[in-house]
Amino acid sequence: MVSEDSFIKLKINGLLDLEALSKEYQISKGEIIKFHNQYCEIGEILPLHLPKYVPFLYLPKRNYENRNSEFVKTSDLQYPVGISQKKYGVVIKYLHSNTQIHFEVDVKRDGHLVEINKGKNYINNAEVDNIIEKLFEKAEQAIYPLKITVDKKGGFSKIENENEIKERWEKDYFPKLKEYYVGETAEDILKKMDLTFRNLKSRQTYFSQSIFYKLFFLPVYQSYFNYSKDGSVYFYFAHIQSDIVFNIKYTLDKKYTRGNKIALRIVGNEADNEWVQKEQKGSVNWLYKFHKDTHDLFSITGSVSTFDKGKELKTEVQIFEI
Q1: Same domain, residue pair 205 and 243
Q2: What is the DSSP-derived secondary structure letter of residue 222?
């Protein structure tokens, strides 16, 4: 591509499609032909009505630059480099049980090291008041701050401060919780949590079963050839204590959003299961948005669903930068 002060010489592959170019560059077909013929060589002159093969097309530089400012420059969504500090609001709605949970997280990112601090849970817009829920919330605080390394695709790789969490749990949390919460149910819960916190490395299901962590660390930083890609992903449904696999299609929008963000859509359906035959199957529909220049996450919205005994189990999630 060769550029001058007033025009751009655009390489054309195959037959010239004036209709498509007119829409893409916001200029009428007649204006394209007129402008091209003004600057081209004699052998490149375009007739007014007949299609013609031309190796290059001369376009107004202004239209080209305006178009480029609207379009994503590459289908390679790279992991964000550098340092950032963000706060996100998280809203999770379990439609099948009429339950909504919301909380906030602070996220510090330094290259591939991510540090997370999580605020308190609110259930149906109220603070937790159930004894068992309070126990879970207080025990969960031992995890934070949580330091994680991610791979080049942004996927969960390793817990960097596992020993620190284990020490925090053993010295500061477990003894106090064991003393305060008594009874068979509390004792069983604390035993399970003790096993988890003492060996988080081998029990990363704690994070993979969390829909927040699943979505936040989904490996979305990839190359999307022709702006799309097929794949598969599983989500855990606590109601049936099972992972459900979905066949999905990633689609990277070619245009920036109205808010000047990069948009990645993940849509798919529940995969066949030879052991469980279902008349109805669930689906996933997620929309990720990233900052244009840094590729830092801006938001995740959407839903995931499955069916159990004819009943739909659907979860809606919103994760958004505050």
Answers
A1: no
A2: S
Question: Is the same domain home to 187 and 254?
Answer: no
194 & 234 share domain: no
Q: What are phi and psi of 276, to 5 degrees?
A: -130, 115
Please check whether residues 231 and 284 belong to one and the same domain: yes
Could you say which of 183, 211, 239 is where a domain stops? 211
165, two tokens: 């969490």
- Please classify residue 41 by burial: count the beta carbons closer than 10 Å to its beta carbon, then call 0-12 exposed, 13-18 middle and 19+ buried: exposed
Contact 251, 265 (CB under 8 A): yes
Q: What residues pair up with 92 in beta bridges, in sequence order?
A: 101, 317
122 with 220, same domain: the answer is no
119 shares a domain with 176: yes
User: Do 191 and 228 lie in a common domain?
Assistant: no
Q: Which residue has the higher pLDDT, 261 or 41?
A: 261
Contacts of 205 by beta carbon, 8 Å cutoff, 6+ apart:
none
Confidence of residue 149 (pLDDT cuts 50, 70, 90): very high
Judge if 193 and 230 occupy the same domain: no
Q: What is the gyration radius of the CA atoms in the chain, in angstroms?
A: 26
Domain membership of residue 13 (yes or no) is yes
pLDDT tens, position by position, 74-102: 899 999 988 999 999 999 999 999 999 99
Which token pair is 134?
């309070």
Provide the domain limits for residue 106.
Answer: 100-211
Residue 64 CA to residue 247 CA, distance in Å, equals 38
CA atoms within 13 A on the CB side of 124: 7
Confirm whether 77 is domain-assigned: no
pLDDT in tens, 200-247: 875 567 888 999 999 999 999 999 999 999 999 999 999 999 999 999
Q: What is the pLDDT of residue 88?
A: 99
Q: Count how many domains the chain has.
A: 3
pTM for the full predicted model = 0.82
Alpha helix positions (H), the chain: 18-25, 29-39, 61-70, 131-140, 162-168, 174-180, 184-198, 205-208, 211-216
Q: Which of 16-20, 36-40, 305-309 has the lowest mean pLDDT?
A: 16-20
